[in-house]
Design goal:
Layout: E1 3-14, E2 17-28, E3 32-36, H1 43-51, E4 56-65, E5 68-69, H2 75-80, E6 83-86, E7 93-97, H3 98-112, H4 120-133, E8 144-145, H5 151-165, E9 169-173, H6 181-193, E10 200-204, E11 218-223, E12 226-231, H7 234-242, H8 245-250
Parallel strand pairs: 3-10, 3-11, 6-9, 9-10
Antiparallel strand pairs: 1-2, 1-4, 4-5, 7-8, 11-12
Helix pairs in contact: 4-5, 5-6
Amino acid sequence: MANLIDIKDLHASVNDREILKGINLTVNEGEVHAIMGPNGSGKSTLSAVLAGKENYTVTGGSVTYMGKNLLEMQPEERSWAGIFLGFQYPVEIPGVTNVNFMKTAVNQHRKHNGLPPLSAAEYLKLMREKLAVVEMDPAFSSRGVNVGFSGGEKKRNEIFQMAMLDPRLAILDETDSGLDVDALRIVANGVNKLKKSTNATIVITHYQRLLDYIVPDIVHVLYKGRIIKSAGKELAMEVEKRGYDWLINDNQ
């Protein structure tokens, strides 16, 4: 089991306000890690920093991804290297269809890896296979990216995008936000079907219910920019029953 990403003493700020205050986290191939914590603890900031989003300033620490310095890579380079970020609030892109958006993304990844672009027939075959993973109607492919989609459809579309790009490391930022039970099941099943021994997933969530479907190997609780507790999936159950106060009080 090879190390995929190694985060050491990571500090980061937004608008000169320090949010991450020394994150230490190692994720190996084949693992699913869940990150939980109260609002404002730094969960989404961590995902944004790893994806290379603008307006987030790393002020200390290191992130090594597949042996390379992740912090020196541009966002598109991180994507080409196999990092995928699923947004809490997927954006709409009017005027750009799903089929053209994903064809461009897939072929850019292939170009980076020295592979020829997929033919139209190859692409359509791949797209149909991956739409089936998240139980999406093929008609969605001709619609604008997320335009007019319900909350559940947007999240399913993101997992479809993840399936098409086949990342080494998927970071899912509150993918369960706003989902009903059926949509949650479909999205989680899609994530599970994409799990391999050579990839890994970081699931950021408020609620234990998602972890009934996507079973984590390790659960971390983030509070005030630091991981204050790591344990097996039983930690999520404990948080569901007792909240965060007992952990926070132990770390005051």
